[in-house]
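In this section we walk through a basic example: taking a raw amino acid sequence and producing a predicted 3D structure, encoded as C-alpha cells. The instruction is simple. Fold the sequence below.
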Amino acid sequence: MDAKVRVRFAPSPTGGLHLGGVRTVLFNYLFAKHNNGEFILRIEDTDQTRFVPGAEQYIQDTLAWCGLTPDESPLHGGPYGPYRQSERKAMYKQYADKLIAQGNAYYAFDTPEDLDNKRKEVPNFQYSRAHRMDMKNSLSLSKEEVDELLKNNTPHVIRIKVPENEEVSLEDVIRGQVSFDTNMVDDKVLLKADGMPTYHLAVVVDDHLMKITHAFRGEEWLPSAPVHVLLWKYLFGLEQMPKWAHLPLILKPDGNGKLSKRDGERLGFPVFAMDWFDPNTNTTTIGFKERGFVPEAFVNLLAMLGWNDGTDKEIYTIEELIAGFSLDRVHKGGAKFDYEKAKWFNGEWIKKMENEKLAALVQPYFDKEGIEIHDKAYLVKVIGLVKERCQLLPDFITQSSFYFKAPTQIDTASVAPKWDAKKTEFFTELAAIYNSKIESGVITAPAIDLEAAFKDLVAKHELKPGELMLPFRIMLVGGKFGPGVFEIVETIELKETIARIQYSLQLLS
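The resulting C-alpha cell sequence is shown next.
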C-alpha cells in the first residue's frame, strides 16, 4: 500500500450504538492497526432534526470502554479537523456549486407540499430521470426563472443529476465488482435548504479532505454507493476514491433480516454496547456492559461475527486480532447473533482474567446488593474460587454472596425427605469437633484436612459420604451450587461454618 492507511468510523449522533456499529468500528480499527495506519472518528451530524443530546458523548464512551481509541476525533483533535460535520458546514457549498457549474447537479425549488402531492400522484415516486422534468427545478425551468428564484432567496436544495443509461461500478474489497444501473438511482439531495450538506455530499468531501484510504460500512449502505461513486468521479476523480468494503449484516438469531433493538427486547438480550438513555422518550435501553460483559469479551465476540482466521480458534486478545486481521477473511454473508454464544465468550474471558482485575469489576455489583466488602484480599480469593462458574459479572453475586453473609433461604426441601436422626447426630458432632478446634486456637484448616476429618466421621457413624455432602453444601450456601464444600469451609472458617450448620439443623428438626 503506497499511501498511509487511514480509515474512519462516521456515526450520526442519533441514539445508542448498535453492536453492528461497534463491529464496524472494530474492523476499521483492526485494519488500521494491522497496517500501521490511523483510525479516525468523525461525527456526521448534518441532519440536525435527528440529533439527540448526549449521543456523541455516548459514542465516545463506548469506544473508550471497548478500548478502541481513535487517533483523531472531536475529543482527540488532529490535523484534518474539525471532526464534526456541523462545524465544517462552510466548506461544502463550494463543492455543490462546482457540481452545478459542471452540469452534474441542479437546483430544486419544490416545496414539501409539492413533493407530497407528487408522492400521492405517483406510486413509489422517486425524484429521478423519470420525473425530474415534471418538478420545479433548474432543469425544467428557464434560466430566467431560475435566476429570479435564486435572486429572491427562494428556498431550494441542490440535487445530483444522475446520468441516464449508464452502469456505475465499484470494486468492493469483500464482494468483488458491484454494478448499478443509473436508471434505478434517484437524484439525491446533496445540499439542503439550510445550507447543510446531506450525508452523500459530506461523506465524499470529508473522505477526500481527510485522506481516507479505505471506507468500511455496513452492506445496507450499498444502494447509496452509485451516488458516492459518481460524486467521486465528478469532484475528485475515481483514482482518488477510497477502497470500499461493505460489511455483512449481523442477523437476528431466529430468522432472516438485520438484528434490531426490537429483536433484543423481544428475545431478552442487549443490542447496544452500553446502557443508552433516550432523552426523547425518557427510557433506558440496557447494554452489554451493564448486563455484565467485560470489554475484552465483547470485542472478541464481535470480531467472530463475520470474520475468522481460517482456524478453529475463537478466543483472541486485541493484539492477536490486530496481528491476524485481514479483509479477505471477512465473510460476504450475514452472521446470526447468538446470545448464548456471546455469554460463552464472556465466561471464557472471565476465566482468563486476573482475580484482582475481576474483583474491581465485580465490586459495584456487591455494592448494589448491599453486600459490604471489608477485605479486598478476601474478595480476590473468593473470585478465584467461583469464576469458573460465572458467565456474566452479576453471576458473582449468585455464586459467591454466601461467602460474605450467611444465606437466609435454605433449600431444606431438597434434603428433608431423606433426613433422619442419624444425620442430625452426625452434623451435631461435626459442629462440636469444629468448635473444639476453635477452642484450641484453630480458626480454619486446609480443605484437604477438613475433607479427611469429615470422611473419618462419616465412617464412624457408618454413613455414606454421598448422603451427607449435599446437605452440608445446602447448609453452607443455601442451595445446590458453589465450589468444593471443603474449600468453602476453609474460606468462611470454622466459626461461621458452625453457625450455618446449627441454623440449618433448627430448620430440619
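Looking at the output, two observations stand out. The mean pLDDT is 95. The radius of gyration is 32 Å. In the next section we compare this with other chains.
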